[in-house]
Amino acid sequence: MTTFTIFSDATATATSTTVYSGYLDNRPYRTFQAYGSTTAGAGAATILIEVSNDNTYWKDIATISLTLGTAVTNDVAASNAAWPYVRGRISAISGTGAKVSLTGSV
Questions:
Q1: Alpha-carbon distance 66 to 19, whole Å?
Q2: Alpha carbon of 104 to those of 2, 57, 76, 86: distances in Å?
Q3: What is the number of structural domains in the chain?
């Protein structure tokens, strides 16, 4: 199994700049794990897993919603499809000192 970081300790809405085609080699059975926390109080984050056949047109295949607090929270998503390109996008993040990370495995 190969594990790769899509983004780490992100603090703002953004789309990952790296597209992970090299790790994937058209292998199905991919898993994704998002985790995050705040430095004080409650927060929230929404992370989208996006895929593409051509690295131009992207489609959301999973949404991970996290309720953030000072303790790290996490959730996962999985896909059986062998998309050649995968990236992550933070569509919303809130909370004092909120940060989130996203990893994938094939």
A1: 23
A2: 8, 20, 10, 9
A3: 1
Can you give the CATH number for the domain in which 84 is found?
A: 2.60.120.1110
With bands split at pLDDT 50, 70 and 90, how would you rate the model's confidence at 28? Answer: confident
CA 22 to chain centre: 17
Q: 66-101, pLDDT tens digit by residue?
A: 999 999 999 999 998 888 888 999 999 999 999 999
What single letter denotes the amino acid at residue 60?
D
Phi-psi region of 23 (alpha: psi -120 to 50; beta: other; left: phi over 0): alpha
In the structure encoding, which two tokens stand for residue 69, read together?
């607090």
